[in-house]
TrEMBL record:
KW Endoplasmic reticulum (keyword) present: yes
Protein name: Cytochrome p450 9e2
Transmembrane regions: 6-22
Alphabetical keyword list: Endoplasmic reticulum, Heme, Iron, Membrane, Metal-binding, Microsome, Monooxygenase, Oxidoreductase, Transmembrane, Transmembrane helix
Entry's Gene Ontology molecular function annotations: heme binding; iron ion binding; monooxygenase activity; oxidoreductase activity, acting on paired donors, with incorporation or reduction of molecular oxygen
Swiss-Prot/TrEMBL cofactor(s): heme
Lineage of the organism: Eukaryota, Metazoa, Ecdysozoa, Arthropoda, Hexapoda
GO annotation, cellular component aspect: endoplasmic reticulum membrane
Pfam families given in the database record: p450
Species of origin: Lasius niger
Membrane topology annotation: Peripheral membrane protein
The keyword Protease belongs to this UniProt entry's keyword annotation: no
Location in the cell: Endoplasmic reticulum membrane; Microsome membrane
Protein family (similarity comment): Belongs to the cytochrome P450 family.
């Protein structure tokens, strides 16, 4: 009798689980939205999970199956995602009706990464709006112009290193490694307010911990669990950043702020701009934890991405000799005009250099998609000409593919 009861419970549980999975993976079928038939539990993530395709290649493959639709359905495991193809619809979602899609999927878990999860990209609703209002002036052209001198100092260290280290006979470099050192020094001086010469000291602690923080190739499982199953992430205590990383960067910010407060030091960097906001702000309070979170996300976002883009750029310039020669002439002209000391304004006016950088971004996008979460109901136009409008509800995911 007990055995039969146990069998009955197991069968009932399996039937309930089957119907639950079937219901979750029938979302786009019910709405008559174009999609590829998903695999139970894995959705459309199987090629990525089993390392047959990268996430970029996986999305691109499905994207190319629907050339004539405005959007199609994609299952991130059991979660339905609307992948937008139509440029006008992208403009509507990302700009015209941004208030309906202002939140993002969270990669960080507040329970396991409480400090870093306070960064701008992880905040929601009113908290996000207040922090964005607080930080937006930090990244205006006027404020970046103030930091220009700090960036130039890092660039000079970089150029001097290559000029002296290569010698007269030339030398082969791992450009990713060299450019990572440059990116590290720029972030250290602009975001954390300290000078770190990674060319003279390639094993300095800031560089080593920055590499650890920005390295995500060993963290995909944690990221996917935190994104799709946050409760499981909390139960398993999945941290993306070690306590050592958190403590190190918080200590740098705390010591820097304390020293500047006591000695009234003014330095044209991100820390100073946030301290100004701290002193003037009447609304959202910005403390050491907030400063650390914003500076840290700047590090994670810029350290690897900047060095990666520059690495691709040097590769493309190296193999395209016509572009290389034309770019060299343009740069030499600017150096001649400014006696070897180009200003922020002169660099901003270098249209050909800007075109080369933008072309690199187009050829090698750093992210596969921009993700948004619906926060207010919104009606999407029909995906296909003879289709019906679809109402996107709060909590629904939107992806805007970059690579495609």
């Amino acid at each position: 009798m007990v055995f039969l009861s146990l069998i009955l419970i197991i069968v009932t549980a399996c039937i309930c689980l089957y119907h639950f999975i079937l219901s979750k993976l029938s979302h786009f079928k019910r709405l008559k939205i174009p999609h590829v038939r998903p695999i139970p539990l894995l959705g459309h993530m199987a090629p990525f999970i089993f390392r047959r395709l990268s996430l970029v290649e996986n999305i691109r493959k499905i994207y190319n199956l629907f050339p004539d639709v405005k959007y199609f359905g994609f299952y991130e495991f059991m979660t339905p995602v609307y992948v937008i193809r139509d440029p006008e619809l992208i403009t509507t979602i990302a700009i015209k009706n941004f208030d309906n899609f202002c939140d993002r999927t969270k990669l960080l878990n507040k329970a396991t990464d409480p400090l870093i999860s306070r960064n701008l990209s992880s905040l929601e609703g009113d908290q996000w709006r207040e922090m964005r209002k607080l930080l937006s002036p930090t990244f205006t052209s006027g404020k970046i112009k103030i930091m220009f001198r700090l960036i130039c100092e890092c660039a000079e260290n970089f150029a001097n290193f290559l000029a002296t280290d290569s010698g007269n006979i030339g030398k082969t470099y791992d450009m990713k490694n060299v450019l990572s050192r440059y990116a590290n020094d720029v972030v250290a001086t602009c975001a954390f307010g300290i000078n770190v010469d990674s060319f003279k000291h390639p094993n300095n602690e800031f560089l080593l911990l920055a590499k650890e923080a920005a390295e995500f190739t060993s963290k995909p499982v944690k990221v996917l669990i935190n994104k799709n199953y946050p409760l499981l992430g909390r139960l398993l205590r999945l941290k993306l950043f070690s306590s050592r990383v958190n403590s190190f960067f918080k200590e740098i910010i705390a010591d820097t702020v304390k020293t500047r407060d006591e000695q009234r030091i003014i330095r044209p960097d991100m820390i100073h701009l946030m301290m100004e906001k701290r002193d003037k702000n009447q609304g959202l309070m910005i403390d050491i934890d907030e400063m650390t979170a914003q500076a840290f996300i700047f590090l994670v976002a810029e350290f690897d991405s900047t060095s990666t883009v520059m690495c691709f750029l040097t590769h493309e310039v190296g193999i395209n000799f016509d572009i290389q020669n034309k770019l060299r002439v343009k740069i030499d002209d600017i150096l001649t005009q400014t006696n070897g000391k180009p200003t922020y304004e002169t660099i901003s006016q270098m249209k050909y250099l800007d075109a080369v950088v933008n072309k690199t971004f187009r050829l090698y996008p750093l992210v596969s998609f921009i993700d948004r979460l619906c926060v207010k109901e919104f009606e999407l136009s029909p995906a296909i000409p003879d289709g019906e409008p679809i109402t996107v509800k709060p909590g629904d995911k939107i992806w805007i593919p970059i690579d495609s």
